[in-house]
3-isopropylmalate dehydrogenase (Phenylobacterium glaciei), 350 residues
Amino acid sequence: MTDLLLLPGDGIGPEVTAQVRRVVTALAPDLKVEERLFGGASYDAHGTPLTDEALTTAKASRAVLMGAVGGPQWAGVPRDKRPEAGLLALRGGMEVFANLRPALCFQPLADASSLKREVVEGLDFMIVRELTGGIYFGSPRFIEDLPGGGKRAVDTQVYTTAEIERVARVAFELARGRRNKVTSAEKSNVMDSGLLWRQVVTDLHARDYADVELEHILADNAAMQIVKNPKQFDVMVTDNLFGDILSDISAQLTGSLGMLPSAALGVAGKPGLYEPIHGSAPDIAGQGLANPLAAILSFEMALRWSLDRTDLADKLFAAVNKALEDGARTRDLGGALTTVQMGDAVLTAL
Ligand code: NAD
Ligand code: IPM
Ligand code: MN
């Protein structure tokens, strides 16, 4: 059985996953690692962003680590063949419905954020993003020509009780091991799916998690509060689209989008999908400028959540912190290290 399937993908994806591979070799040489083309790279080679074989291998692995997908060269490809469609098919196919996106400000980076030190220092907050439902997967979905000229485009936001409940349960369970507070973000003031979201979370809380503090917040206010005073939050649970946006905002609190890892989890015992939350960064791809820490920290999450190696995860986390303490900085963090040199710094610290 494959322990770790690497899907480097496109743009900076292969650059950052190459550093993960070095870390795996140094830290856990016993892991059986495989690699497959994914995203635009797979489309170019196989005519599809995710082959059946790659999905089957992913489902049969203990953990999957993805780099990033997409880029301007695939902008003209039909939607269902685009690199991003491959990522959605992978998430849906692996049924990883709960996406943990930790916004954690490493102490040495307290001055690297565009926000003031006192706002971000000591920050440790977790977004739990619903990942296999909502407007990303709802139907109908189409663009059509209108008889009088012009077009009409439709996307559909759909959530069921079961989909909301299972992701909220993950958030409550996580909170119990942290600071015992869940904030649920939606737009119940304008959306029926938001109304249902609030009701299901409220009911689940009363039924099974009354010991956890629960607060509801409208998603627009959540965006503002994350920038104003992020340390008020412990775990924030939200839908697929709001979670996408709120986690990019939160990434900036940690110093850079290149710092934020994620773990997408589904049913216990099934493999998790680990991905940095950043994209393929076409503006810096191929130049050795990408920060590999989000990808390396995604492997740290894989060790913790899928590979049963908390000891190694702790070691890797400490090594990343040490590298940052020693001043290792890629350009996004205000430094001059290349991607490989940042990998070197983590390996040295290990
Ligand atoms: P992006 O995340 O690729 O880049 C946004 C900005 O952040 C860019 O300036 C980029 O240089 C910078 N950045 C991102 N990651 C970095 C890193 N590790 N180190 C240093 N700087 C980094 O977002 P975008 O430009 O909006 O999207 C580009 C492509 O990536 C699109 O095709 C998009 O669909 C795709 N995308 C993929 C994923 C994914 O695979 N999970 C996530 C987001 C976007
Ligand atoms: C992310 C990305 C993806 C998303 C895209 C590339 C499909 O932005 O992982 O945050 O929107 O989920
Ligand atoms: Mn995103």
Summary: The chain is about 40% helix and 15% strand. The mean pLDDT is 97.
